[in-house]
Amino acid sequence: MLKCSKKASFSHLSLKGFSLIELVIGILITMVIGGAMMQGTSYYRDKMLSINVKEKAYGDLKNFTNYWKSKIAASEWQIDEDVNWRDGGQIELFTSDNPEGSDESVTGNLYYRASKVIKYDNYEYYYYSLDTKVSWNILNDRDSLTFSVDQIVFN
Amino acid sequence: MEMLISLVISSIIFLGMSFILIETSRHHAYEEVKLDSKVFANYVLDDIENTLVKGSNVSISAGIFTGIDEITIALTDGNTVYTSHSEHGVSKDNNKIYNYDNIYDNGTEKFSIKEMRCYKPTSDSYNSSNPASLNILNSSFILELKIALFDPAGDELESFMMDRYIFNPYIYSTSS
């Protein structure tokens, strides 16, 4: 009789399916995994944006540096004692092509400075030490690139 | 009934996650090709810049039909010519500039140089209040590359421009 009752109880349990608690735990675990995946995807997208912006900044800073090298080489650099960073204008580093109109953009600020370096070896000579910099704000963070080059003056 | 509901919810979440994964990996593959193409473009720009700054004379003939200008640079040991090439896009003295893995598994090209323009700047875009002299502008060149990206089927996905400002001190010191 007891054996028969146990068998009936087991049979009833196996037909019951998942309880609400089990279902909620299952969904919670899936949501945690899904959330981690979304976090990873978001991190990856931010990283790719950061790399693309840096690539563009590198190209633009190289052109900016070449321009100021040419000004120094041609002796068109305004000589003064001020060796602080000077404003070199703004450049567009990234513009999203969002069809809904809410465009995002990253703008970079260019800076430059140069100082005259006078050397005394067998004879006196000089050159200019040129620093150029581009800095930008991206994802609530500030990033920058700086080039340092030397340039002689062609007379 | 609970079993069915849980199966439906799990399937929806699974399908959503699979969609995100597929989109992310597709985007990742595309960005990888784009980054490779930028490295390639910078290499080509560096190569032409390094030759151009050493040249005693630079002549440019416009590539009207090809979209790729022919740049002839006079060096002490002869001329170097950058021109259109049917296989490599742009060649240096008829040789490939960069030995780069640029093909998908099915043999289709990932990216190529679509346009190359070289010209002298007519105005100073950096410093309008105290612009560069005409001698500087006449000794400077702007080199533009247009790179096209393709999918494995050979359809163009995107094209973008990269440029380089180049100053030739030899031309400046001999012309001023």
Summarize this structure briefly.
The complex is a heterodimer of chains A (155) and B (176). Chain A has 155 residues and is α+β, with helices and mostly antiparallel strands.
> How large is the share of residues in beta strands of chain B?
25-35%
State the share of residues found in helices of chain B, binned by percent. Answer: 25-40%
Structural class of chain B: alpha+beta
Biggest sheet strand line-up of chain A: 1-2-3-4
Strand order of the largest sheet of chain B: 1-2-3-4-5
Tally of separate helices of chain A: 2
Intertermini distance of chain A: 115 Å
Mean pLDDT over the residues of chain B = 88
What is the overall silhouette of chain B?
elongated
Written overview of the protein:
The complex is a heterodimer of chains A (155) and B (176). Chain A has one domain. Chain A is built from two helices and four strands, in the order ααββββ. The mean pLDDT of chain A is 83. Chain A is α+β, with helices and mostly antiparallel strands and 155 residues long. Chain B has 176 residues and is of the alpha+beta class. Chain B is built from three helices and eight strands; from the N terminus they run H-E-E-E-E-E-E-H-E-E-H. The interface between A and B is large, with 37 and 40 residues.
Descriptive key words:
heterodimer; A: 155 residues; alpha+beta; 4-stranded antiparallel β-sheet; 4 strands; 43% helix; B: 176 residues; 5-stranded antiparallel β-sheet; 3-stranded antiparallel β-sheet; 3 helices; 36% helix; 32% strand
SSE inventory with pairings:
The complex is a heterodimer of chains A (155) and B (176).
Chain A: H1 2-14, H2 20-73, E1 86-95, E2 105-120, E3 124-138, E4 141-151
Chain B: H1 2-52, E1 57-61, E2 70-75, E3 78-85, E4 89-92, E5 95-96, E6 111-119, H2 134-138, E7 140-150, E8 156-167, H3 169-175
Antiparallel strand pairs in B: 1-2, 2-3, 3-4, 4-5, 6-7, 7-8
